[in-house]
Automatic annotation (TrEMBL):
Domain of life: Bacteria
Protein name, entry field: Putative esterase
PANTHER family for the chain: ENTEROCHELIN ESTERASE-RELATED, IRON(III) ENTEROBACTIN ESTERASE
Species this chain originates from: Paenibacillus mucilaginosus 3016
Lineage per the UniProt record: Bacteria, Bacillati, Bacillota, Bacilli, Bacillales
Any matching Pfam family: Esterase
Amino acid sequence: MDENVYLKRTIVKEQVPSNHLDAPRPLRIYLPPGYNELISYPVIYCQDGEDFFNFGRIATTMNRLIYDENIEPAIIVGVDVDKSVRTAEYAPEGDRFAAYCRFFAEELLPFVESRYPVRGSAEDRILAGDSLGGTVSLHLALDYRSLFYRVLSLSGAFLEGTRSRIAQETDLSWLELHMVIGTEENEVATERGTYDFLEANRQAKAMLEDRNCRLSYEEKPGRHVWGLWQQELPGMLKRMME
């Protein structure tokens, strides 16, 4: 197929008003080929929305999957973040974490669902995130399980706070989690220090399996960068959308 077909994308910019956050939150919303307001669509919510679109090339990837793999078209909602407060919003110990999670569940979802024909069931909502974006996505599923149970994690920062949260659960058979981690992610420098993300993901994997989570887990050669995640995103999305 002509490469230009994959690159032809419809992306709408929005601003979500918020009482939980200190300012409206920018969104970028991908509408699939043949978008029709009379049809309902599954929806993928991406943390680090700007990065998922610019570095992850998720819109082009979705076009390819729709045209070449015949997967069901989906709407993608990229939720932007101010990098200066990203850790505060995405890390469970962050001072903006609770407010961000409430914004996501109580303000973002109703905003999107009142304006776009996305399906309103947990089965048709996917949360996606890289690094701490994977962290907050998992916590949202754990804390709002009536809203979310399907999570895609690209090198999630499943550090002690998140593993402690998993430990509070006894049965995660309702949770569907797709994880990928790079085999060279054993010394990842972050704002909070340097961590072994590979070992953290292995420990989280064991805890999740013990609790019967529906888990897809892969270790791939690579570092904690979008070069790895962009490469892995198409296959992970295809598995989740099939």
